[in-house]
Design brief:
Shape: globular
Organism: Symbiodinium pilosum
Number of strands: 15
GO molecular function: O-acyltransferase activity
Number of helices: 18
Radius of gyration: 22 Å
CATH superfamily: Alpha/Beta hydrolase fold, catalytic domain
Strand content: 15-25%
Bound molecules: 2-acetamido-2-deoxy-beta-D-glucopyranose
Pfam families: LCAT
Protein name: LCAT1 protein
CATH architecture: 3-Layer(aba) Sandwich
Strand order of the largest sheet: 7-1-8-9-12-15
Helix content: 25-40%
C-alpha cells in the first residue's frame, strides 16, 4: 500500500512537472516604467511637450527626461494631487499615465523588455528559465504599476488614477486558468505592502485559496523605513544607481506620492525612537506629518500630511498573514542602514537639505532591521509563514544573490507539490 501510494506520487510529480506554477512579479517603488499621453497638458515651460497626439511617451526611466532642462517637465507629468475633501487623486489636467510592459515587460511594438525590468529582474528570469524553463509572457509575468500610489487607489481608481488591483486580479486569474495551476506571487520592496493590502482587502479568502499557491515576499518594509524621512527632507535617489536615476531626481514627485506614506516609519513600530535631530527639536515617527506641514509643499505639506491618518493609521490592522496565502518572507541583512538624520539647523518652512550627519544601524541598506523583522517578531505566529534571512546582502542585491536564486528555484520546483503527498 505504501509502495502504491509512493508510485502514485511519482506519477503525480511527473504530471505536475508539465504545468508549473505561473509566477507573477510585482516590483518595488519606482520599479515600474511609466508612460504618459498628453492632451494640451499645462506645462511649466514652453519647451515641455504638451501634446503627444494620441501616442504614449515613456517618461520613467528615460534619459532624455532627466536632462536639466526637462526635469521640470517630468515632474509636472508625474504630478499627483490628492483632495482630502473628496478623497480623490488626480493627475495634472491633460495627462494620462500608465505603467509600461504589462505581462511581458515589453511595450507594444518593441521586442526587448524595458531596461528597468532588465536591471532588476534579469538574473531571476534567466535562472528560472535555465533551470525550470520559465518564460516571460508565457508562465512568468511582470505586473508593473503606478508606484506613486498606495493600496487605496490601487483598489479604487479615481479620475483615471489607480486601478492596479483589478488588472492584477485578472492577470492572476488568466494565468491560473491557462496553466491549471495556482500562481506564485513574487514581490519586492514596496511590492510587499502593496500585495499585503491586495490579499487582505481586495480579494476574498476563497479567491486566495483558489488562485494562490504561495507568496515570496522579498525585502518587505512592513512598517516603513527611516529613509523615507530623508525623501521628505532632502530627497534621495531611491537606492538606484546614479547612472539610472540621478540624485534628487524626483523629490517633488516623492513628497506627494501616497506610496511614500505607506513606507514612512510607522509610529507603532518605531515608537519614541528619535529619527531626526535638530538643534532645538527632535522628531519621532509620529511627528512626521507635523513636520511635513511645517515645511510646506516642499515636503508634501498639508496634502501628504492629510494622507497619514488615512493610510498609516489603519495599516496596523493588516499586520498579520493573509489566510490561504502560504508565505515565504525573505530579507537580507548586514548592510549599514540610516537610522537617525542629524541637522545643524532647525526645520523651518521650505526646508530642503541633506542631513549633516547620518547615524547608521542594521538593515539591508534601505530598510531598517526593525521593519524587516515585523513578520517574525510582531505578526501573530503562523505555520503558513517561512522566514529566511540572507546575511551580507543589500535591498537590491537580494534580486541577484546566488543564495536567493537557488532558494527560489528550490521553492518553485514542481516536485514540491508531490512532497506534500508523501
Ligand atoms: C504636489 O501637490 C500639490 C498640491 O498640494 C500640487 O500643487 C503639486 O503640483 C504637486 N506636485 C507634484 C510634483 O506632484
Ligand atoms: C508583449 O505584449 C504586448 C501586449 O500584449 C505585445 O504587443 C508585444 O508584442 C509583446 N512582446 C513580446 C516580445 O512578445
Ligand atoms: C535630541 O537627541 C539628541 C541625541 O539623542 C540629544 O543629544 C539631544 O539632547 C536631543 N535634543 C533635544 C532638543 O531634545
Ligand atoms: C495647512 O493646514 C493647516 C491646518 O491643518 C492650515 O492652518 C493651513 O492654512 C494649511 N496650509 C495650507 C498651505 O493649506
Ligand atoms: C560581505 O560581502 C563582501 C563583498 O561581497 C565581502 O568582501 C565580505 O567578506 C562579506 N562579509 C561577510 C561577513 O561575509
Amino acid at each position: 500500500m505504501k509502495l502504491l501510494l509512493f508510485c502514485l506520487t511519482c506519477v503525480y510529480a511527473v504530471e505536475r512537472h508539465a504545468g508549473r506554477h505561473p509566477l507573477i512579479i510585482v516590483p518595488g517603488l519606482t520599479g515600474s516604467p511609466l508612460e504618459v499621453e498628453e492632451n494640451d497638458a499645462a506645462m511649466p515651460h514652453s519647451w515641455c511637450k504638451r501634446t503627444t497626439s494620441g501616442e504614449w511617451m515613456q517618461v520613467w526611466v528615460s534619459p532624455v527626461q532627466a536632462l536639466p532642462l526637462e526635469i521640470d517637465c517630468l515632474t509636472a507629468r508625474l504630478s499627483l494631487t490628492y483632495d482630502a475633501k473628496t478623497d480623490e487623486y488626480s493627475n495634472l489636467p491633460g495627462v494620462r499615465l500608465r505603467p509600461l510592459g504589462w505581462r511581458n515587460g515589453t511595450a507594444s511594438g518593441k521586442s526587448h523588455k524595458d531596461l528597468l525590468f532588465s536591471y532588476q529582474f534579469d538574473k531571476i528570469l534567466n535562472r528560472l528559465h535555465e533551470e525550470l524553463g520559465y518564460a516571460l509572457g508565457e508562465n512568468v509575468f511582470v505586473a508593473p504599476y503606478d508606484w506613486r500610489l498606495a493600496g487605496d487607489s490601487h483598489a479604487k481608481p479615481t479620475n483615471g488614477v489607480g486601478g492596479f488591483y483589478e488588472e492584477l486580479k485578472k492577470l492572476i486569474e488568466d494565468a491560473v486558468q491557462a496553466s491549471g495551476e495556482r500562481a506564485v506571487v513574487l514581490s519586492h520592496s514596496l511590492g510587499c505592502p502593496t500585495m499585503l493590502y491586495f490579499f487582505h482587502k481586495y480579494v476574498t479568502e476563497d479567491w486566495r485559496a483558489d488562485h494562490i499557491h504561495g507568496w515570496v515576499a522579498l525585502s518587505g518594509p512592513w512598517m516603513g523605513g527611516i529613509v523615507q524621512v530623508s525623501a521628505y527632507l532632502g530627497g534621495w535617489n531611491l537606492g538606484l544607481p546614479s547612472w539610472l536615476v540621478p540624485h534628487d531626481y524626483v523629490k517633488r514627485v516623492q513628497v506627494n506620492a501616497s506610496s511614500g506614506v505607506m513606507i514612512a516609519p510607522h509610529p507603532k513600530a518605531y515608537g519614541d525612537k528619535t529619527l531626526v535631530v535638530t538643534p532645538s527639536r527632535n522628531y519621532t515617527a509620529s511627528d512626521v506629518p507635523e513636520m511635513l506641514r511645517q515645511i510646506g509643499p516642499q515636503a508634501g505639506g498639508n496634502q501628504t500630511a492629510s494622507l497619514f491618518p488615512k493610510l498609516q493609521g489603519p495599516w496596523v490592522e493588516l499586520q498579520h498573514p493573509p489566510k490561504n496565502v502560504p508565505m515565504q518572507n525573505w530579507y537580507s541583512t548586514g548592510i549599514k542602514t540610516a537610522e537617525v538624520f542629524e541637522f545643524d539647523s532647525d526645520i523651518v518652512e521650505g526646508f530642503n537639505k541633506a542631513a549633516d550627519r547620518t547615524v547608521f544601524g542594521e538593515g539591508d541598506g534601505l530598510v531598517n532591521l526593525l521593519s524587516l523583522q515585523q513578520v517574525e517578531n510582531v505578526w501573530p505566529q503562523s505555520s503558513s509563514v517561512t522566514t529566511r534571512t540572507f546575511p551580507n546582502c543589500s535591498h537590491f542585491g537580494i534580486l541577484s544573490d546566488a543564495r536567493v536564486l537557488t532558494a527560489l528555484v528550490d521553492y518553485l520546483k514542481p516536485i514540491r507539490d508531490a512532497e506534500v503527498f508523501i
